[in-house]
Amino acid sequence: MFKFGRGSKRTVGLDIGSSSIKVVELDHSGETSRLVRFGRCGLLPEAIVDGEVMDRDVVVDTIAELFEVNEIASRHVVSAVSGRAVIVKKIQMDMMTDEQAREAIHWEAEQHIPFDIDDVSLDFQVLNRESSPDKMDVLLVAAKKEMLEARSELMRAAGLTPTVIDVESFAVQNAYERNHEYPEGNVTLLLNVGCFVTNVNIVKDGIPYFTRDLSFAGNAILEAIQKDLGVDYDEANEILENPGEERLDDLQSIVGLVGEELAVGIEKSLSYLRASGEADHVDRICLSGGSSFAPGLRESIEKRQGSPVEVANPFRNLVWEEDLFGSEDPDLLGPHYMVAAGLALRTEGE
């Protein structure tokens, strides 16, 4: 999306989330991308709230520590943004070449985004040149320059050089496409459930038909656990990660009830697609993110939507050294790294 230059056979994806920061380094020199290093480091509560950095020094130090501990030598990174300052919208434009579209995109964007055109960075991709006579479908992406610069400055302060800043939903899609198959004609709903934001991306034949961010996320689950079980934040986190048999039923009930809010957001997204005539159902749902293993969440979504739900693993089609994961399970770790892996899977020219 928003490029700053430089290509390499090794790429480093950096996911700066609200509760933790994740990094993935890949080597693309072989036939199959190789997972070289990965790691994550938790952030202090309130360091980042709703995507906004509240304690810059803590975040910068955490990024620097993450690279040092995991011995990642490359200083060039690919990162991503999401939230209210990012607009992703499919629009129609008159049929024209890519060069002509690049000249016309600013005028088109003024008709579709709620920000001053001078305050945003724009990018676009032609999706379909045969959508209707003399028209083509175009994916328009706009992000506030202020947010992009703040994210870039954050990385530079940690001694890094940003090469590309992508959109989190597209990173998730990239990771999914490299590790899973899209049956032709099927509609896939990608849900990346983070701490404060859930990235929603509805994809058909590799084309993102609808992209948005929902405010429901893992933090809502933690707040419900605190309230219903009368525990503090740290205890709620521990219960969510290791509920034990005595807490499992209570936890599944809490997650199921809170998950209704996520279901409402999904339904609104699908209603938009139905109204536009682009899709009337979802064939399957893919879940990722740090909250994807919340007990009962997958089952709750599957029951409400009536579509099979799988938990993604961005490491599925990668190769790695035998001892890289130690005693940990890649299938359990993978969903946490969906954005970071999707960013690192970008190769030169993408």
3D architecture notes:
This protein is of the alpha/beta class and about 350 residues long. It folds into two domains: about 1-85 and about 145-180 and about 315-350, ATPase, nucleotide binding domain (Nucleotidyltransferase, domain 5, 2-Layer Sandwich), CATH 3.30.420; about 180-310, ATPase, nucleotide binding domain (Nucleotidyltransferase, domain 5, 2-Layer Sandwich), CATH 3.30.420. Helices cover about 35% and strands about 30% of the residues. The protein has ten helices and 16 strands. The protein has helices at about 55-70, 100-110, 145-155, 170-180, 220-230, 235-240, 245-275, 295-305, 330-335, 340-345, and strands spanning about 1-5, 10-15, 20-25, 35-40, 50, 50-55, 75-80, 85-95, 120-130, 135-145, 160-165, 185-195, 200-205, 205-215, 285-290, 310. It has a six-stranded mixed sheet with strand order 1-11-7-2-3-4. Strand 5 (about 50) and strand 6 form a beta hairpin. The chain is globular and about 60 Å long.
